[in-house]
Amino acid sequence: MRGLYVHIPFCEHICFYCDFAKRVAKNQSMIDEYLAYLEKDFLTITDNVPFYDTIYLGGGTPSMLSVDQLKTLFKLLSRYNPTEFTIEVNPESYTHEKGLLFKEYGINRVSLGVQSFEAPILEYIGRKHSNQQVFDTVYSLKSIGITNISIDLIFSIPGQTINSIENDLELLKKLDVPHVSYYSLILEEKTVFYHKYLKKEFNQTDIDLEADMYEMIVQKLKEQGYEQYEISNFAKDHKYSMHNQLYWTMEPYDAIGAGAHGYDGKIRYYNHRHLSEYYHMPRQGSYVETDYQRLSDSLIFGLRRSSGVNLKEIKEKYNVDVIESYPDLSKFFELGLITIEKDYLKLTQKGFLLGNQVFEVFV
User: Fold this and answer.
1) Domain span at 297
2) Same domain, 318 and 187
C-alpha cells in the first residue's frame, strides 16, 4: 500500500475550529500560481513512483477551485489510477458540473464536510452551508455514480445538546451514505476558537456530556448499520477509508502542498505552511524515526482501530513484549479501558472514549 496526499490550502472562509494550513484566496490568479508550484512539488516527489493505491485531495477546500483549476489539478494526477481517489468537498462550493468532472477524472470517493445539521451550531463554528445544500450534493453525486460518500460531523461543540446530536443522526440516516467520520471538537492552537479561549470567550463542553454524546453516537450508528472500525470512523459494507488506514498501519504516503506531511516508512517530513516559503523551498524539515518512535506510533495508531494491535507482530518486528515493557498498562486493564483478545491488544468501548489516557503510556 502506498498513498499520496495533496493539500489545497484555500478556503472561501475560515472555520473557527480548523488548524490545517489554510487561507482565503485574494483572487483566482493566486490559486493558479499555487497549482503551478504544486506541479513542481509533485514532479519532484513522484519521479520514481510507479503507482498509488490511494490519492487524497484535502484542504482547505479543494472543491472551491473553479472547473478549469480542478481540470489542471486532475490532469496533473491523471497518470495514476488509484483504487481509492478521494476529494474533500464543502456543500456550498459543490456544483453538478464539478461532480461530472470528478467522475470523468476517476474520483470515486467524496468526503463531505457537514459538521452539524443545526443552523445555529453551523454559524457558531463558522460554516456557511445549508442542509438543503448537503442533501442536494449527496443526491447529485449519487446520480453521477459516485456513491462512496463520507460525511464529516463534529460533536462536543459548545451549545450542542443530546437532542442536537440525536437530530443530526436522524438527518444523517436520511442521507444513506456508507461512511461517517464523527469527531469530538478539539481545541487547537492557531484557530479562532483558541484565541477566544485565551480571552475566556470559549467554554468547552462538560466532559460527562461529551461522553454521553459519544455513547449515543456509537449506539445510534450501530443501529443504522454502521461498523465502528476506528475511534471516530464508521462504515457500512466495509467501505473503510483506505487512505486513513495508511496512517493507522504505518504504511508510506507521499505528500505535496503547503503544510502537508509525508512518511516513507522511516522518515517523516513536513512542508512549509506559508505560501512564499513553500514556493521558495517546499520542504520545511524532516526527521528519521527511531525504533522507539516507530514502536510508539505503531501502538498509538494501531489502538485507534477496533481491530487493535497484534502483539505477536509487534514482538517480531521490534523485539518488544508490549505488556512487559509498559507496566503502566496494568491500571488500564483494571479500569476496563483495554483488553486482549486472541493476541490483539484493543481498546474497549469505554477505552475508545478515554483513549488518550492509554496513549500517553507510549509517548
Assistant:
1) 291-363
2) no
